[in-house]
Amino acid sequence: MTDPMSELQKPLQETDRGRADASHLFDSSPSSPTQKAPFIALRDVTKVYRMGEYEVHALRGMSISIDRGEMLAIMGPSGSGKSTMMNILGALDQFTGGSYFLDDTDVNGLDPDQLAEFRNHRVGFVFQNFNLLPRTTALRQVEMPLIYAGVSKSDRMRRARKALEMVKLGDRLYHRPNELSGGQQQRVAIARALVNEPSIILADEPTGNLDSKSGAEVIQVIQQLNQEQGITVILVTHDRWVAQHTRRVIILTDGLAVADERIAEEYWLGRFASSSGQESD
Questions:
Q1: Is residue 143 included in any domain, yes or no?
Q2: What whole-number distance in Å separates Cα of residue 96 and Cα of residue 102?
Q3: Ordered DSSP codes for 18-39
Q4: How many CB atoms lie within 10 A of CB 227?
């Protein structure tokens, strides 16, 4: 059987845009014997969808641990369980068996109101299609979660402005989506995910609808948020180039994690921008 990580390494080398061999990309050093309790812990999680007399086993005993402040990618072919896992991490879907703890909170023990609170305040979602309102300014888009949370107008404007400045859109506050590039629209979506100060950001194919330059800008912003704000970031992606700009890659196949490797040397996008002559906005 082909080693899934060797399949990942090969495209990483091919998409390295002229950089050196990526043979040292993965860190195989043993973990510390005195590790803290994980920030996120899935233990033997299963998810079964019942369709009449048929059962579809989307997750088959998933067990992973994620530390606070990590930035990782989840990869795998279609049907591997990536989207199901993301939905469970974001409390958008319930699992069939096992356990899920986030920062010592037993997510399975939350009632519907507590789950809504969990989604609104602990998790920020970023989707491939931006999900922006077409006639609404960037500032208002980012304010929306705060409006639903009952935050005062002055406070939500201050927090929305700060979130947009964090993603380098402080000069685009009153621009509507049709006045922004694809990369800028996705950065508005990231700011909207940040505005409630979540514990984790879940990003589902965040560069899927972007050209390579805009995609690089978005990944650079996400990297900086992870580095400077300590936000835990989980990316679901098919793009191996995106995966190599995280610190860890988990590969799923048939509802199981078949590989879990840490990246030893990060490839910061500023180097690519300078070597290609491209500059970020």
A1: yes
A2: 17
A3: T----TTSEE-PPPPTTPPPPS
A4: 13
Q: Which pLDDT tens digit goes with each residue over 74-103? A: 999 999 999 999 999 999 999 999 999 999
Taking only the tens place, the pLDDT of each residue in 252-271 is 999 999 999 988 665 545 44
Against a cut of 0.90, is the pTM above it? no
Q: What is the CATH number of the domain that holds 163?
A: 3.40.50.300
Rounded distance between C-alpha atoms, residue 208 and residue 238, angstroms: 9
- What does the alpha-carbon distance between residue 104 and residue 121 come to, in Å, rounded to a whole number? 16
What domain count does the chain have?
1
Which of the 8 DSSP states describes residue 93? S
Measured in whole angstroms, the distance separating CA 196 from the mean position of its chain's CA atoms is 16
115 belongs to a structural domain: yes
Contact between 109 and 117 (Cβ < 8 Å): no
CA distance 267 to 238: 18
Nearest-angstrom CA–CA distance, 138 and 128: 17
Instruction: Examine residue 61 and state whether it is found in any structural domain, yes or no.
Output: yes
Scan for tokens 């510390």, then name that residue.
32
Structural domain includes residue 225: yes
Q: What are residue 279's phi and psi, to 5 degrees?
A: -125, 140
The DSSP call for residue 193 is H
Asked if residue 219 lies in contact with residue 207, where contact means CB atoms within 8 angstroms, the answer is yes
Q: What counts of helices (H) and strands (E) characterise the chain? A: 9, 11
Nearest to 248 by CA among 69, 36, 53, 48: 69
